[in-house]
Specification:
two-stranded antiparallel ribbon; 5 helices; nine-stranded mixed sheet; alpha+beta; 3-methyladenine DNA Glycosylase II, Chain A, domain 3; 2 domains; 11 strands
Length: 209
């Protein structure tokens, strides 16, 4: 509703039969309802009307129930990888301060609070943060040596695409389900950037209150 409200003219003229644009946004449930606002029919508001129609067209996914398999908790949305990538991007802060990486390095680690060993491939390493893709134990298929175990890492951020569920606001604390999570466990964090359906989430926590 907040996204639609921001796109409305904000005149609170009452021509739609409601007292305010906020009430109109709350009552708007389908594309046909846009016609109730005569101001939105004006040419200068055409792009806003189209954006509202797009939000309403995907409304059925906003109400979809997304539940973690391990914990049974409800998530606001599922987070999928960026186009052409094998997993969501994760930013890791290794507790072992002696390690250093370069793009292409592969290592194993355990995220703080998670019982599962992860395998990662480095995309970049800056300011003591490794941005990685999760790749799984591919050494078992290739016969290559077991990747170095760097111990426990704090997951500082996730980046990916909202594939199911509602689009959150920047600054909102959310529950989300990373599609690549082996345990299908709901995570929580704060949305710090939004661009279309692409999100960056920081302050990651496996404890969902």
């Amino acid at each position: 509703m907040r996204q639609i409200e921001k796109l409305l003219p904000g005149y609170n003229c009452g021509e739609c039969g409601l007292k305010s644009c906020r009430e109109f946004a709350a009552a708007l449930v389908d594309i046909d309802g846009i016609a109730r606002c005569p101001v939105l029919q004006q040419e200068k508001f055409k792009s806003r009307s189209e954006q509202i129609a797009e939000l309403l067209a995907t409304a059925e996914t906003k109400d979809e129930e997304i539940i973690g398999v391990l914990d049974g908790l409800n998530a606001d949305f599922a987070l999928a990888p960026l186009a052409g990538e094998p997993s969501c991007r994760e930013d890791l802060y290794p507790f072992d301060r002696t390690v250093a990486f370069k793009p292409g390095d592969v290592f194993r680690y355990r995220p703080l609070g998670c019982p599962i060993t992860h395998f990662a491939k480095v995309l970049k390493y800056q300011h003591c943060i490794a941005t990685v893709h999760l790749i799984g134990p591919v050494h078992l298929l290739s016969g290559s040596p077991v990747p170095e175990d760097i111990g426990i890492c704090m997951v500082a951020g996730f980046e990916g695409i909202v594939s199911r569920g509602r689009m959150p606001e920047v600054g909102e604390t959310v529950r989300f389900l990373p599609e690549h999570c082996m345990m299908q466990k709901v995570h929580s964090g704060v949305v710090v950037h939004s661009e279309g359906k692409r999100l960056r989430i920081e302050g990651i926590d496996l404890k969902v209150w």
